[in-house]
Amino acid sequence: MEQLVYERIQDNLGRLRLNQMREVLDSIIKVSEQEKRSYLSFLDQLLEEEVAAKDKRRIHTALKRAGLTLAKTIEEYDFPFHPQLDKKAVMELLDLTFLGRCENIIFLGPPGVGKTHLAQSIAIKACYHGYRIYSTSMDMLMENLKEQTSSRRKKPYEKAHLVVIDEVGYMPITRREAHLFFQFICSKYEKGSLILTSNKSFLDWQELFEDPVIATAILDRLLHHCRVINIKGHSYRLKGRELNNHGFQEGDQKVT
């Protein structure tokens, strides 16, 4: 009789697509019998296993859709390597209250100081808490904005609670692209949050966008509700390498 009940339970779990419960059923039965757990305790653990598995799949899918291919967490960031960085100010961003207020975050600094790492860490945390995220580079965003003008199909960044735009300033921006970016910023203004990383100071943005009026208008909306984190220091990628005046490690050969 017990075998028939067991087989029926396994069959029903499969039909209900409770695959994790079906997989761990035997082990939880064994532990529950050994520890003489109550029926409620047995059921509670069984359900916890299924919920945990579904959450893991949900987060994996959300990260993939968000474009977060480098799943870097805040625990992996080397704060001691950048002693001038205000760790408390960075950690406060991970409470995600800025999302509820539709605030923006801008990480400024030279290449290699971890701007992308910090931006993705916050995005991953937001993803775990159920926010819709879209992560892209400035170059890819420009391509998507150009395509949008000839298509009515909604883009993922239009529905995202948080859009991460990496590498603002690494590639030159045309006047048309500057206007498209301004329209994008206007569409997200006080409706969602943005995280930008850039190696350019705000003073350089006028040159970047080739139009002082557009640059000022973009910054006006970006900085209205914004937290700016300026990271100073050397590239983490060159950690442990001592460079001479020409930028080469001793023993390196210059290739011409």
Explain the layout of strands and helices.
Layout: H1 2-15, H2 19-35, H3 39-66, H4 87-93, H5 97-100, E1 104-108, H6 115-128, E2 133-137, H7 138-148, H8 156-159, E3 162-168, H9 175-188, E4 193-198, H10 205-208, H11 212-224, E5 226-230
Parallel strand pairs: 1-4, 1-5, 2-3, 3-4
On the 0-100 scale, what is the average pLDDT?
86
How far from one another are the termini? 82 Å
Helix content: 40-55%
Count of domains: 2
What is the CATH third-level topology name of the largest domain? Answer: Rossmann fold
Secondary-structure element sequence? HHHHHEHEHHEHEHHE
Low-confidence stretches: 243-256
Number of strands: 5
Q: DSSP strand (E) fraction? A: 5-15%
Structural class: alpha/beta
CATH superfamily of the largest domain: P-loop containing nucleotide triphosphate hydrolases
Shape, per Cα inertia axes:
elongated
Main sheet properties: 5 strands, parallel
Enumerate the strands of the largest sheet in spatial order, edge to edge or round the barrel. Answer: 2-3-4-1-5
Annotation field: number of helices: 11
Output the radius of gyration.
Answer: 25 Å
Which CATH architecture of the largest domain? 3-Layer(aba) Sandwich
Q: Can you tell me the CATH class of the largest domain?
A: Alpha Beta
